[in-house]
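Here is one chain, start to finish.
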Amino acid sequence: MTELEQIKEDLVTANKVLAYHHVVDSFGHVSIRHPSNPNHFLMSRARAPNCVEVIDITEFTQEGDIVGHNPGKPYSERFIHGAIYEARPDVMAVVHNHSPNVVPFTVQGKRKFRPIMHMCAPIGTDIPTWDIAHKFGETNLLVTSMDMGRDLAKTLASRTVSLMRGHGSVVVGKSLRDVVFTSIYMEINADMLIKAYALGGNDITPLSDGEVAANTKGRAGFTYERGWENWCRLVDRPYFPAAWEMGPGFSKTDPTG
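Its structure:
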């Protein structure tokens, strides 16, 4: 199997894993930067994520144009992905979702969206909300042009996450495993945060900047592979192992040699 073939298989897996964890349902999408052409990206045609197959994987330019194999209608919001890849050379994968426990945080400011669980640390402590109406007026809230995508990418800036008012969120990562991991635990964190606010109002203790940095720095192959292998089994998909290296500060007792 070639590198590109394996990446396509993993992209199918990512779609099904995100659907299994209720990050996406019939809508939402995940992409990965093309391994040999950084100005292109790979993403399914417009299909419910749990239904995606390898034949659906399509190559796009950053402007959202299809390259080569054309299996059908593309997602109308592919411009989210193209604009972020254009603006962020460090980003290797993108998820756009309507994660149900996250959406309530996009439409009010009384209760801020914060990381309260260590597994969700990479979302950071500075999470903006992009409001499409600020520049584009009253729309159906969908990001259907590069102009809209670039405006969203500007709000995201160098962060991992941006909320989208009345819509959902966008999550970026340094790999497909990374962005799936963050997206899953972001939804779990949102559910826990709603419960914490219900119990304590604003009297909660979110992760500090230092704790976010330490957790993010320590996330490496051992963590990713442990999750990815399990999720592959849950959705009956092939597991292609990657490095199981430990991140710095993972354990004070494990051998370092």
